[in-house]
Amino acid sequence: MTTILRHPKEVREFSAALKRQGKTLALVPTMGFLHDGHVSLMREAKKRADSVATTIFVNPTQFGPNEDLSVYPRDFEGDVKKCESAGVDVVYAPAPDDVYGHGFQTYVKVEQVSQGLCGDKRPGHFRGVATIVTKLFALFRTDIALFGEKDFQQLQVIKRLNLDLDLGVDVIGMPTIREADGLAMSSRNKYLSPEERIKALTIFRAMNEAKHSVANGQLRANILIPQAVATLEQAGFKVDYVEIRDSTELQALTVVVPNVTARIFVAAYMGKTRLIDNLEISAG
Ligand code: AMP
């Protein structure tokens, strides 16, 4: 049975009761409209802790003024069913006013790792992410928290804030879950028309082309990136960025050197829908 909590006070009581019983907690923060990517995090959480909490909260501070906050897809009842069948013990779904109360003015800003990629394209986004995740870590006093590599820069931001603020949470990154044809699962895929959905697969194809080029000895970012951009544009994407960076500090790489874990990062618009994805393309 999954219990639904609406108020921070209830979460504090839940967390305190767990601690009293000496039980461990794993947290899976989400914005809802859950799919198998989210469920994979919950199932892993279940293996790693005595109790699992999922949060469903479309966090206003991580959306820019021209972004899709008000139309972000929601299906609370369906989400709770998925949580229940994944064995989630608690769903926390607060009202925005209970998260950002009157006079709220404290934000968490992670400096370097938040820059570039989505940090540049979505100003303020990672400040919103870092703030809500810090608040959730503090509220739940969780032992473990799981996040998807689908949002790879976000994962690095969270690992960094967890270290820098001595929060002591075991932050775990999990592989991207994809549709059968390779499209990364995302709540935003719902916005795609059937034709756009077919074309959207090109992100995975472009990233794999880069991976194969690297395997065949083409290591130069100034060749690999334009190749990927061309593939995406041919399919009708408007490219926001394609970059190749190392997997820990997220520094831009001009050459995919052996012994450095390299990733290609893509953000591109299919119609009005902005999709992101990334893939490891390390040499040798
Ligand atoms: P969101 O609801 O989009 O904020 O995502 C909540 C969590 O699920 C984040 O940690 C995401 O990285 C993760 N996630 C989203 N899509 C996927 C996916 N396709 N595979 C694995 N994890 C995912």
Describe this structure in words.
- The protein is α/β, with parallel strands linked by helices and 284 residues long.
- The chain contains 10 helices and 9 strands.
- The protein has helices at 8-20, 36-48, 76-85, 96-99, 117-121, 125-140, 152-164, 194-200, 202-215, 221-234; strands at 3-5, 25-30, 51-56, 90-92, 144-148, 170-174, 238-246, 262-270, 273-280.
- The chain has a 6-stranded parallel beta sheet, with helices on both faces. Strands 7-8-9 form a 3-stranded antiparallel beta sheet.
- Helix 6 (125-140) packs across helix 7 (152-164).
- The longest helix is centred in the middle third of the chain and has 16 residues, at 125-140.
- The N and C termini lie far apart (47 Å).
- The site of adenosine monophosphate (AMP) has 17 residues, from helix 2 and strand 5.
